[in-house]
Design goal:
The protein is of the alpha/beta class. The chain has helices at about 1-5, 20-30, 40-55, 70-75; strands at about 15-20, 35-40, 60-65, 80-85.
């Protein structure tokens, strides 16, 4: 995190993707601005929020991974600052098309 801060503008933030409470603790202690709780069960997200309050109250917590429209409220209710979900597009049908252009007068 210190190395990243030396290379980015002072207005940028450092977000660390964490898959465990221990990784989140390390990132908070190192000064991460945002902790992304990736694929963590709700009880672990709660632990990260509690750690944040002690170690780095200004940090933000984002929940991501395995979040659906059916369970998003549970994550919001525990106090995360942001939620990321791909469930909105997992079943989307994508169109594949191209547009060919010809210059006029050629």
């Amino acid at each position: 995190i210190a190395n990243a801060r030396r290379q980015i503008p002072f207005t940028a933030v450092v977000e660390v993707e964490c898959e465990s409470v221990d990784r989140a603790r390390t990132a908070l202690q190192a000064g991460a601005d945002i902790i992304m709780c990736d694929n963590m069960p709700i009880d672990q997200v709660k632990e990260v929020i509690a750690l944040k309050a002690i170690l780095s109250p200004k940090a933000k917590v984002e929940a991501s991974g395995n979040i659906t429209l059916e369970n998003i409220d549970r994550f919001v209710d525990v106090g995360v600052d942001a939620v990321s979900t791909g469930s909105l597009i997992h079943q989307a049908v994508w169109l594949d098309f191209s547009m060919k252009m010809v210059a006029q007068g050629a």
